[in-house]
Hints:
The structure is a single chain. This protein is an alpha/beta fold. Helix content is 37%, strand content 18%. It has helices spanning 20-23, 67-80, 99-107, 124-139, 172-180, 192-200, 204-207, 212-238; strands at 8-12, 32-34, 37-39, 41-44, 47-51, 88-92, 116-120, 144-149, 154-155, 162-163, 184-187. Helix 2 runs parallel beside helix 3 (99-107). The chain is globular and about 55 Å long. The two termini are 25 Å apart.
Amino acid sequence: MRLCMFQVAVLDVDICGPSVPTMLGLAGEQVHQSGSGWSPVYADENLAVMSVGFLLNSPDDAVIWRGPKKNTMIKNFLRDVDWGDLEYLVVDTPPGTSDEHLSVVTYLAKAGIDGAVIVTTPQEISLQDVRKEISFCRKVNVPILGVVENMAGFVCPKCKVESAIFPPSTGGAEKMCQDLNLTLLGRIPLDPLIGRCCDEGKNFLDEIPQSRATQALIAAADKIKEACELAKRGTENTHSHSNGVHY
Length: 247
């Protein structure tokens, strides 16, 4: 999305573990108040970011909030941030099916949600949690754009041989997608250099563009964009009226 120059925003609603500022090289940045609301922090000219991490005095500070306070913060992020004209709003949620997920679904219900991207790892212990997240999406009528399998093998940087660090004992994401009639958007191999880029807040698209993991992430992003466009067209057709205007 960054390469295609779409206007994108990332909303980090992992209230208790906000890691997006560090990963995007924005650690230490602060949110400023303006006449039109909170101003997001920009990682690039077309990439706006908002996170509770910008509101902490220290990245080591614990956020000890009950559900209602989390809900209020997420509502403020969606209502009071001056996002500008966006083409994509990417909401990064923590694992599970808790307050954060319910708040996002509730507050974005009228605006409409194109869909959820489910991220898993190959081992069954991860798939068990992911199946619950899939069930959650279906119960609250959030479309599922597809599934991304992370840590899907390790490619040796020297010999290029791929090893299964986390063996898919029950078939991994591919088998789960077949069973649940979902789209597998991509399999992302482990790459220590991507982990280093995230720790240092560097853009791995620039740092290691030839990495198999980078190429897999770009391919998955392209599939997500296509799925969003299909979802949008479907929504427009559903809400079309006799006068030919789409709402």
